[in-house]
DNA sequence: GCACTAAGTTCAAGCATTGAACGAATGAGG
DNA sequence: CCTCATTCGTTCAATGCTTGAACTTAGTGC
């Protein structure tokens, strides 16, 4: 490392600080200087190339009180955007997201892709992306998949075995001529609650269910993925060591008691919306199925909280839909089993993001990286 | 932050890099330059104050081959030391540790302190520390306690209720006129395997048992403590949700099946050494008690690994003593229950540190901080 | 004694931030 | 309409750390 590099690091770090402040909200140079602790001089200096490169715009002066009016800076309305894409068992989704955190467009297409080849799926995803891409620079694509990702490769996907091992990121990248980054849907759903807005603090777990149960774990403001991408496999936390046999080879996994397929079967329903209606109608079979699932999930979450010591659980995906009927059982198991559960306040909330959480997180992966490594913005 | 601060940060960062390289092993300026990526000029500059302040010494030139002989730098034999101290239910321990990672002296005194007041305990600890402190500068004291520590306060200690809430760090600090830092014994036992030598990689869990079961979790080379110090409470991971009632209010906690007290009771023994002898003699009751504990612990560890995704488990404390008879059961549960357990290699090893692991970690807390914040060395 | 090699030192150059001084743009008050 | 107060944004010399090249030092090999 040369000295130039050292100083460049300082500059990039400050650039990151400034961009983070701008993601939070727009502001004049003077305002940003106050918020970041840097000087006005440095702010002029740092923002100059951002303005020159069309990343930021200077808005017309706002007339507010005495003194020279400030000219707020914000992300350029024609500046770079990120693309998020989600490949899931029963649907595909895409979204475009600006650096300011605003969604530009989003599309969700129900599609059963269980039997499709990776080429067929990627063709379809690429087509969807092309349809929504605006006439603006594109930073890259975040691609969500329902499975374990390690070193950019899908290494485990019980529900999409055909895609395991396929070079999904590279292949989609070739189709679109863009950088593509692959990640697990649970991690990305969690990220969507962390970036660009903190919806659940800096330490939380996001839990959702489709066929499996996935938890995205956020520790100290970072998604925790573990050494090989397997972190947060809440579905295979054991709650009854001699319990029901699981496809993973273990017994008594949470997934066997609180998976969406189990809930539906026990409730005698085929689809989530039908279950939701039954619950609202007070159907006893539905209510007891959901309660049983909540209890199992609560035991697993208590274990998780005793290990990770995070204060907040966010229910996402199908669990968010059911949360009204699910929360009581979960919370009571957690209160009884989380160490010092009474004094430590454990918060259980439903995700506000709905069915677009994953794809939004996928796009967020890209905007976040752009902000954290500002040199990418000038490429 | 002034510009001076920025530059100082660069310098301190480089100082840290150099000190880390020296903890690894001594080396000449040229050698260190090569290892750290800095230039010889910078190394001369950075080491000058370290030599002037008696942190490092320059050894006589070593005659090795051609060229001007190098003068290796190492930590000064009369340089600053750290003190570790451990308060436990049945013993007190102290240790002095040099920056080079060498233990100077250590003492372990069996003492039942269950009924002692915090003043009595701290008097005793201070006395032990005074006995082993050498005539060298002291960086500070790391103090290990069997309980949950948050913001420097012991907030939960089922086995030492009298010490909960007492200002242990401050009070011991007053007695010795030194900085004292408090931490949980499980975290410190784990730290001892990470610093100053990597004994189990950068991602692992250290598990040990006394009355409770504690896990110290190391993620990406840092001890993970959670938001409120409760992380790694493996003892209260549930393995049978309708199992044995636990003192914590839950049911089926690992601790109720694999705690040392449970093992001893089931084996019909009073003490660990008696159990160890029985095991070596092939006593069936002892063997089956340990096997049962290993199975329960294995289930809990599988759950932990499915959540944290760390590749290595280190058995410490009493478990290290029993590991020969414990490992098989643990490993087989882990292989069966850790997701992709076959392909991911999960390593299970016994700690090489013996009964001084905790106190060594406590001292390591202090040397580690000194290296990571080198400005402390000049105070 | 001389060439060769490698360690360690010296020093001018380069660079990002700073703080103070300065210029710019507006509102308030007369 | 003019002047003063106020705040925004820019300019510029100063600061201090690392660098790389040149240089000095201290050995080996012949």
Topology (SSEs and partners):
The structure is a homodimer of 379-residue chains.
Chain A: H1 3-24, H2 29-36, H3 40-52, E1 56-58, E2 73-75, E3 81-87, E4 91-98, E5 103-110, H4 118-132, E6 138-145, E7 148-150, E8 153-156, H5 168-176, E9 180-184, H6 185-192, E10 204-209, E11 213-219, E12 222-224, H7 255-258, H8 260-267, H9 272-280, H10 284-308, E13 312-315, H11 317-337, E14 347-350, H12 357-372
Parallel strand pairs in A: 3-6, 6-9, 10-13, 13-14
Antiparallel strand pairs in A: 1-2, 3-4, 4-5, 7-8, 10-11, 11-12
Chain A binds a DNA duplex (30 and 30 nucleotides) through residues 1-8, 10-11, 14, 28-30, 38-45, 61, 63, 65-71.
Percent of sequence in beta strands of chain A: 15-25%
Query: How many domain regions of chain A?
Result: 3
What is the number of beta strands of chain A?
14
> CATH topology of the largest domain in chain A, which one?
Nucleotidyltransferase, domain 5
The CATH superfamily of the largest domain in chain A is ATPase, nucleotide binding domain
Structural class estimated from helices and strands of chain A: alpha/beta
Instruction: Give the N-to-C terminal Cα separation of chain A.
Output: 22 Å
Care to describe what's here?
The structure is a homodimer of 379-residue chains. Chain A has 379 residues and is α/β, with parallel strands linked by helices. Chain A folds into three domains: 73 residues, Orthogonal Bundle (Arc Repressor Mutant, subunit A), CATH 1.10.10; 133 residues, Nucleotidyltransferase, domain 5 (2-Layer Sandwich); 152 residues, ATPase, nucleotide binding domain (Nucleotidyltransferase, domain 5), CATH 3.30.420. Helices cover 42% and strands 19% of the residues of chain A. Chain A contains twelve helices and 14 strands. In chain A, the strands form four sheets. A five-stranded mixed sheet of chain A has the order 5-4-3-6-9. A five-stranded mixed sheet of chain A has the order 12-11-10-13-14. In chain A, strand 7 and strand 8 form a beta hairpin. The longest helix of chain A is centred in the C-terminal third of the chain and has 25 residues. The radius of gyration of chain A is 23 Å and the shape is globular. Chain A starts with a helix and ends in a 7-residue tail after the last helix. At the A-B interface, helix 1, strand 11 and helix 10 of A face helix 1, strand 11 and helix 10 of B. The first copy, chain A, binds a DNA duplex (30 and 30 nucleotides) through helix 1 and helix 3. Chains A, B: It comes from Lentzea flava. Chains A, B: Belongs to the ROK (NagC/XylR) family. Chains A, B: Pfam families: ROK.
């Amino acid at each position: 490392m040369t000295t130039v590099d050292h100083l460049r690091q300082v500059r990039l770090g400050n650039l990151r600080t400034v961009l983070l402040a701008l993601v939070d909200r727009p502001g004049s140079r003077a305002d940003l200087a106050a918020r970041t602790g840097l000087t006005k001089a440095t702010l002029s200096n740092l923002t100059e190339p951002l303005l020159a490169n069309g990343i930021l715009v200077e808005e017309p002066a706002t007339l507010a009180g005495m003194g020279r009016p400030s000219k707020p800076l914000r992300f350029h309305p024609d500046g770079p955007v990120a693309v998020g894409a989600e490949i899931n068992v029963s649907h595909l989704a895409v979204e475009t997201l600006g650096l300011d955190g605003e969604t530009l467009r989003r599309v969700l297409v129900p599609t059963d892709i269980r039997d499709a080849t990776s080429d067929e799926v990627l063709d379809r995803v690429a087509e969807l992306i092309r349809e929504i891409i605006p006439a603006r620079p594109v930073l890259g694509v975040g691609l969500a998949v329902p499975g374990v990702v390690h070193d950019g490769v899908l290494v485990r996907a019980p529900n999409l075995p055909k895609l395991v091992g396929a070079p999904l990121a590279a292949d989609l990248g070739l189709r679109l001529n863009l950088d593509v980054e692959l990640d697990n849907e649970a991690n990305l759903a969690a990220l969507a609650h962390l970036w660009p807005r903190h919806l659940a603090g800096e330490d939380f777990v996001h839990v959702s269910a489709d066929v499996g149960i996935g938890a995205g774990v956020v520790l100290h403001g970072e998604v925790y993925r573990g050494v090989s991408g397997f972190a947060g496999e809440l579905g295979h936390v054991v709650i009854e060591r001699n319990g029901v046999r699981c496809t993973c080879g273990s017994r008594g996994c949470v997934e066997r008691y609180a998976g969406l397929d189990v809930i539906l079967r026990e409730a005698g329903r085929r689809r989530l919306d039908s279950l939701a209606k039954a619950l609202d109608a007070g159907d006893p079979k539905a209510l007891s199925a959901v309660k049983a699932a909540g209890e199992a999930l609560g035991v697993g979450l208590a274990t998780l909280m005793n290990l990770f010591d995070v204060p907040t659980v966010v229910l996402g995906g199908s669990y968010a839909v059911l949360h009204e009927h699910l929360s009581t059982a979960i919370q009571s198991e957690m209160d009884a089993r989380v160490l010092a559960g009474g004094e430590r306040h454990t918060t259980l909330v439903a995700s506000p993001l709905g069915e677009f959480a994953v794809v939004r997180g996928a796009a967020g992966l890209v905007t976040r990286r752009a902000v954290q490594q500002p040199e990418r913005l000038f490429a």
